[in-house]
Amino acid sequence: MKKKLIIAGITALLVIAFATAYYAFSRHHSIEFLSGTDLSDPDLLRDTAAILYFSTTANQDTDRDGLSFAVFVDQDGNSKLWKMEGLELGTVFATKDSFFLADRSHVYLADSNGTKTFTMLPEEHTGELTDFNEKDNLFYSIYNSGFTDEGGYASNIRYGNEHGFDTIQIPHYLQMSGKADGKLLMVIGDDDHISLQKMPLQQNVQLEEIVSLGPIGERVGLASILKEGDYYYLIMADTEKLTSEVYRIHEKTKEIVTFPLTTYKDINEYIIRLPYNLRNAATIHDGMLYYADGIGDVHALTPETGEIHIAFSLQGASQGQMKMSEQTYFRDGKLYFFRYHESSDTHSIDTYDVTTGNLLSELPIKGLDDMYYYAQTKHKRLSPYDFIVR
Amino acid sequence: MKRFIAFALAGILVIGVQSPIRASAVQQQKNEIVTIQSTVPGEELVLSTRLLEKNFNELLDKKTEKQNQLSIRIAKLLAEHFGKNSKVQGGGSANYIIGPSESGDFFYTPASTAFVNHGHVGLYYSSNTIVESIFPTGVRSISANVKMVEKGAVVKSVSTTDAVKQNAANWVYTQIGQPYSLNFMNNRNTGHMGAKNCSKLIWSAYLLYGGLDLDVNKGFGVYPRDIRDAKQTTFIRQI
């Protein structure tokens, strides 16, 4: 009898404690996330000026509780959060009137007709690149999927539109990737031989070698593959020589010209100078190649003369190995820089003119605290992986 | 500090309250046990409530489990509450790239799942390419230029020949197409060729190709921290 009383008493105490805690804490500010309906809201589709993507790393997903967020920022700097499952290195994509998002097991397509969610198998855990092919009205999202049961490697492509999505497979690990003219560009291969290849973004995997790049050595990509006119541009580092170079490759003649970009004094400087986001680290504008490194130096290359110089530096860029979630995005001769302000503990999107290096505007972002605190309460660490400006 | 208090409170709820309940109740019941003749071996004790001791313990276990769940939920609420009201440097936006190291080296990063910092390890196949096992798909390759880690991460080398390091790295890269295994507790005793988790992947590579047991405590399970702290490893750099 005493036993039952003790158990009942303690259980009652715990229930009371739980109820009290729940009551007390539920009164605090709750974080509001967008719903699927909100995602296709005409105001959101129209007013979104930029989208940021954050996720936990795949190794934080062992209990299936990884997180990712697409942050929709409007012209006034107000942000709205769309919460998804985790997808390390995930991407976001927006056309003029739609959003295309993905997490480890879903793709989401939002437009004025509503938000459609497609469950995708196999799950993906490492994003690579996303694009939209207007010609066939298909979205493409490429993933670094991992080793296959047969010992090979797979980079899966989810492709589709509002009518449904399917998955095809590139049987290679993508050392580098990029997109141009409706084609996927990639550097693939093994230790003895890597090559630049292209593949039409279509439902069939048909790789075409552009040029051989020899043994990989200790080379590694520092930016997306770019194309301008007849030339492909690759920015690669050699971590043994502690240098980086720009490769300019003529599509037809296959001629490769290299331009020295940076010499690092040691491996620490190399790590510190790694770009904030390799996908958005470089662009070509008015015949000049611009490359933003991890301490905010924007390098400019004139391919005709081979002259390389630091054109300008981004204000407030982190200078050490600790980054503050900075992101870069180039478009139409402007460089958008998502940065952190230590003095006010806030973030902003700063806009630079790449030609003059002038800071054109600064847009403070409101509402990111909610995302960071939500992740913190889940004992998760979010990393920034993508940033686009419409 | 606040989080510490929160978890201390939860700990008191889970351990400090429940254990005495069980101990005192069992003791109380045992005091009421009808003495069983020792000449009847194997006969189970019968409590005055006519419950078998086994059944009684099962009942208590169920009660304890329910209380544990309640306490965990309270702990999570407390953590969420104090998390909401505490500040993280940079609003939690600080992040780190692990960067390159030599083939055969490995990195360890703190990593939490369900409030438990279990850690994570990955091996450098080449100076710029990391191979790691992740749940649930298994082994993947990722550029060291984009691999994010937590503050406190370390890069370490294994004290052995270059040939062993290269062979271990090659095995990790080319021989594995296996899914992820959640079995950390007993992964020393599972096969090298089957499903693996992050620490088993590295442990198996060096055991098979260098005869090195990278498990600091030689327990049943090889956890990421066991690899990090193995005496055959040397420090390279810390994040």
Itemize the secondary structure elements and their pairings.
The complex is a heterodimer of chains A (390) and B (239).
Chain A: H1 2-26, H2 36-39, H3 42-47, E1 48-55, E2 67-74, E3 79-85, E4 92-94, E5 99-102, E6 106-111, E7 114-119, E8 127-133, E9 138-143, E10 146-147, E11 153-161, E12 164-170, E13 176-180, E14 183-190, E15 193-200, E16 208-212, E17 219-221, E18 226-228, E19 231-238, E20 243-250, E21 256-263, H4 267-272, E22 282-285, E23 288-292, E24 297-302, E25 307-313, E26 327-331, E27 334-341, E28 346-353, E29 359-365, H5 368-377, E30 383-389
Chain B: H1 2-31, H2 53-84, E1 96-97, E2 106-109, E3 112-113, E4 116-117, E5 120-124, E6 129-134, E7 138-143, E8 148-149, E9 154-158, H3 162-174, H4 198-210, H5 224-228, E10 233-238
Antiparallel strand pairs in B: 1-8, 2-5, 2-9, 3-4, 5-6, 6-7, 9-10
Helix pairs in contact in B: 1-2, 3-4
Can you walk through the features of this model?
- The complex is a heterodimer of chains A (390) and B (239).
- Chain A is mostly beta strands.
- Chain A has 2 domains: 32-171 and 371-390, no CATH class; 217-357, Methylamine Dehydrogenase, Chain H (7 Propeller), CATH 2.130.10.120.
- Helices cover 13% and strands 48% of the residues of chain A.
- Chain A has 5 helices and 30 strands.
- Chain A has helices at 2-26, 36-39, 42-47, 267-272, 368-377, and strands spanning 48-55, 67-74, 79-85, 92-94, 99-102, 106-111, 114-119, 127-133, 138-143, 146-147, 153-161, 164-170, 176-180, 183-190, 193-200, 208-212, 219-221, 226-228, 231-238, 243-250, 256-263, 282-285, 288-292, 297-302, 307-313, 327-331, 334-341, 346-353, 359-365, 383-389.
- The mean pLDDT of chain A is 92.
- With 239 residues, chain B is of the alpha+beta class.
- Chain B is globular, with a radius of gyration of 24 Å.
- In chain B, 41% of the residues are buried.
- Chain B has 2 domains: 2-87; 96-238, Alpha-Beta Complex (endopeptidase fold (from Nostoc punctiforme)).
- At the A-B interface, α1, β10, β17, α4 and α5 of A face α1, α2, β1, β3 and β6 of B.
